[in-house]
Amino acid sequence: MTDDNKEKSATALQYQGKAAPTVTARGHGQLAEEMIALAQQHGILVHQDEELNKLLSQLELGEQIPQALYVVIAELIAFSYVLQGKFPENWHNIHQRIDFKT
């Protein structure tokens, strides 16, 4: 999404866990605002990064993200899982950096 001085833009990705995430929706202006509001209403985490959105907006609907974006998108997905309290089955909190007492 862009800052408030420019027209808002949003790109939605879907990740099924097997293949690379794909672009499922894209919008500008009022449509972007509605996409963001709808995502938030459904508990979907929204990441706001103008540069990443510029790259993603170049993709066609249904297209998988390019390999060059795998790491950044994987980090965002992993972080969103942690925020939701989801961890891999074999994950161990070896550094005790995450407090499970929420």
From TrEMBL:
<comment type="function">
    <text>Required for formation of the rod structure in the basal body of the flagellar apparatus. Together with FliI and FliH, may constitute the export apparatus of flagellin.</text>
</comment>
<comment type="similarity">
    <text>Belongs to the type III secretion exporter family.</text>
</comment>
<dbReference type="InterPro" id="IPR006135">
    <property type="entry name" value="T3SS_substrate_exporter"/>
</dbReference>
<dbReference type="GO" id="GO:0005886">
    <property type="term" value="C:plasma membrane"/>
</dbReference>
<protein>
    <recommendedName>
        <fullName>Flagellar biosynthetic protein FlhB</fullName>
    </recommendedName>
</protein>
<keyword id="KW-0813">Transport</keyword>
<dbReference type="InterPro" id="IPR029025">
    <property type="entry name" value="T3SS_substrate_exporter_C"/>
</dbReference>
<dbReference type="Pfam" id="PF01312">
    <property type="entry name" value="Bac_export_2"/>
</dbReference>
<keyword id="KW-1006">Bacterial flagellum protein export</keyword>
<dbReference type="GO" id="GO:0009306">
    <property type="term" value="P:protein secretion"/>
</dbReference>
<keyword id="KW-0653">Protein transport</keyword>
